[in-house]
Fold:
Amino acid sequence: MLKKTLHLKFSIELKTDIQTLYDFHTDTDNLPKITPPWLAVKIISLEKPLIKGSQVELDIGRFGMTQRWKIKIVALNPPELVCDRALKSSFSSFVHYHRFKTINEYKSLLCDELELTLPFYPFSLIALPFIKKDIQKMFDYRHLQTKKILEKNYV
Structure:
């Protein structure tokens, strides 16, 4: 079967140290704080503390439909990387790398990298521009919220 893997990358510079950024992303209580309001995300199950092999189940609602996502943490490399892979999602495959890089002691770079494969390829290619735009909008929101939260007390 033919498949096309998409590689998408989103990044933002933040006035915070890398450890704070890593800790924020490994604290699963922060997920609702950075989830866009147009997505209805409900945490069904969550293993705490977050470790390699942890699994998360989410119900994600959009356009009047809800789909269960099952996600596994496949890599943790403090304070530089969190990687999760969808075991069940709306994509044929979905891997999300959260990369954290030090710029200096007061600034960090948050990079979200996605590798995803559309279902029903090549028929799903018609939806590709919408999917890319939707994912961009979601990460723009997530990054802005992360910035607001982490830079709130920055002096």
